[in-house]
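Appendix C reproduces, verbatim, an entry submitted by the partner laboratory led by Prof. M.T., so that reviewers can inspect both the input and the predicted structure.
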Amino acid sequence: MKSLFEEMGGTYVLGEDGMYYPELLLSTEEPARYGKYGMLRKSYLKEYRSSLYITLMQEGKLNNHLNEIDDTAHKQLERLMKQMMEKQGVDEALKARDQLGWVCAVNNIRNAAEEVIFSTMIYV
């Protein structure tokens, strides 16, 4: 008769003392190094996509997923901001001419770029 542990795919290993112990594997998941966007994605998954969150956690893929989202979001933000700044003429000449206007324009561009990131990567 198999134990519940064996029925679920677990195995036992014979110890030096002649006793059988469950063979438990340590997680090979990469360490968490994500920042703002990874944390936002994690909160979203926990609250609105709990089954995906639990699956990623059980498979040891949660940190990998969050690290990847965070890295991709930062690259996307840089690229979008650069494109939007070029299109709107927000450059060093504007910064020299009107510092406050430049700061306002860059903040608006950052907010718009983050909205794109939120709707395409974080809250999906």
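The first helix runs from residue 4 to 7. Additional entries are available on request from the coordinating office.
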